[in-house]
Design goal:
Elements (H helix, E strand, L loop, with lengths): L1 H18 L8 H8 L17 H10 L5 H10 L4 H9 L3 H6 L13 H4 L28 H14 L3 H106 L13
């Protein structure tokens, strides 16, 4: 609701700037209308004319094509609210930007005020992040803390006032943050790739060792199987030997008994040298 009221009041200021020959000094009636409330009829509390210099400088950095007078008027109408003023200036009509452009400033061909102001970088709590596209050394970032210190000192020495120093410091810090984030991300990616390659080598080595162990286990299993088969065959042969030994012993006993019977038969015969007809 506050943004809508601010937009209506600023639109009336645009119309006044376009039709009045003295754009810098509006008539008393218009001035009174600017100071009037939002339709309630009650007098509004007094406001600082011209706005906060810090807010004006911050908005000036973000909106170089808008005149200083209009920035101050927008802040005044929005109650020195940085967010409302910034949101309104982002939606600034192209014809109004041309009408209130600062003297001597010519926007590039085909670019409006909305195109010149990037959407990112607008923060809350009356803070603004300065664009880093215009930093001359953004393409060749330093690699040591000494170089960063020199850049920061040079930027501070080149500043014309406190607001300019804040804007320059904001640009340097933003570039530094992006550089550190990119460097940390690259180092983390390299470290991840290195660890991944190490783990991959270890995994491949483990696979090779596992394959070798599987082959060794298979060979050992075959040998153990052959050994078991040989042990079974040896046990069977031992049993056969025992059986054969018992048979031999039985045959020897039988043979001895037969020989004794034969000897007794020969001794009991009446005719020596003649055997019984049933004995061959």
């Amino acid at each position: 609701m506050s943004a809508a009221v601010c937009g209506k009041r600023a639109a009336s200021f645009f119309e006044e700037q376009q039709h009045s020959p003295h754009a810098g000094t509006p008539p008393p009636s218009k001035r009174a209308r600017f100071r009037a409330g939002g339709g309630s009829g009650s007098p509004s509390p007094p406001r600082a004319r011209g706005g906060d210099p810090g807010l004006v400088a911050a908005i000036r950095v973000r909106f170089p094509s808008v005149s200083l007078e209009f920035i101050e008027k927008a802040l005044e109408e929005c109650g020195n609210d940085f967010d409302l003023a910034t949101k309104y200036l982002l939606n600034l009509p192209a014809q109004s930007a041309k009408c209130d452009a600062a003297p001597g400033y010519q926007p590039p061909n085909g670019m409006t005020t909305e195109d010149q102001v990037p959407a990112e970088g607008i923060l809350v709590d009356n803070e603004v992040a300065a664009p880093v596209d215009s930093v001359p050394w953004a393409d060749n970032l330093p690699s040591s803390s000494i170089q960063w210190s020199e850049i920061l000192v040079n930027e501070m020495l080149s500043a014309s006032n406190t607001d300019d120093a804040k804007a320059r410091a904001s640009r340097v810090l933003e570039v530094f943050e992006r550089a550190m984030t990119s460097r940390i991300g690259a180092e983390a990616h390299q470290s991840f790739q290195k660890e991944n390659s190490i783990y991959k080598e270890q995994f491949e080595a483990a696979i090779r060792e596992s394959t070798i162990l599987k082959k060794a286990f298979a060979i050992q299993h075959e040998r153990q199987k052959e050994q078991d088969e040989r042990s079974q065959e040896l046990q069977q042969l031992k049993q056969l030997v025992v059986q054969y030994q018992e048979q031999v012993r039985s045959l020897e006993v039988n043979n001895y008994a037969l020989s004794m019977h034969l000897r007794q038969a020969q001794q009991g015969s009446s005719i020596p040298g003649h055997f019984h007809r049933d004995i061959f």
